Amino acid sequence: TTVHSITATQKTVDGPSMKDWRGGRAASFNIIPSSTGAAKAVGKVLPSLNGKLTGMSFRVPTVDVSIVDLTVRLEKEA
């Protein structure tokens, strides 16, 4: 899961979105769930993890913030 601030591509007021209904929400007043390319990017850098990660993103109404929450289940004891 990634959390980051609003981006320049988000709408500043509620209105229709061609991509999905969540994208139509005003960025400065709503926490908006979105997709993320982070899981795919990790799979490209570490091929052994390709296809084994999923993720989602939250865009939050702040000027500057970023956080990643990663939960791992191991098949063997560490």
TrEMBL record:
Keyword Oxidoreductase: yes
Matches recorded under Gene3D superfamilies: Dihydrodipicolinate Reductase, domain 2
Family: Belongs to the glyceraldehyde-3-phosphate dehydrogenase family.
Top-level class of the enzyme under EC nomenclature: oxidoreductase
A Pfam family that the UniProt record links to this protein: Gp_dh_C
A GO molecular-function annotation: glyceraldehyde-3-phosphate dehydrogenase (NAD+) (phosphorylating) activity
GO biological process: glycolytic process
Sorted UniProt keywords: Glycolysis, NAD, Oxidoreductase
Name of the featured protein: glyceraldehyde-3-phosphate dehydrogenase (phosphorylating)
Pathways per UniProt: Carbohydrate degradation; glycolysis; pyruvate from D-glyceraldehyde 3-phosphate: step 1/5
Domain Glyceraldehyde 3-phosphate dehydrogenase catalytic: 1-77
Gene responsible for this protein: G3pdh
One Gene Ontology cellular component: cytosol
Stored InterPro entries: GlycerAld/Erythrose_P_DH (IPR020831), GlycerAld_3-P_DH_cat (IPR020829)
PANTHER family: GLYCERALDEHYDE 3-PHOSPHATE DEHYDROGENASE, GLYCERALDEHYDE-3-PHOSPHATE DEHYDROGENASE GAPC1, CYTOSOLIC-RELATED
Domain of life: Eukaryota
Record-listed E.C. numbers: 1.2.1.12
Natural source organism: Mallotus montanus
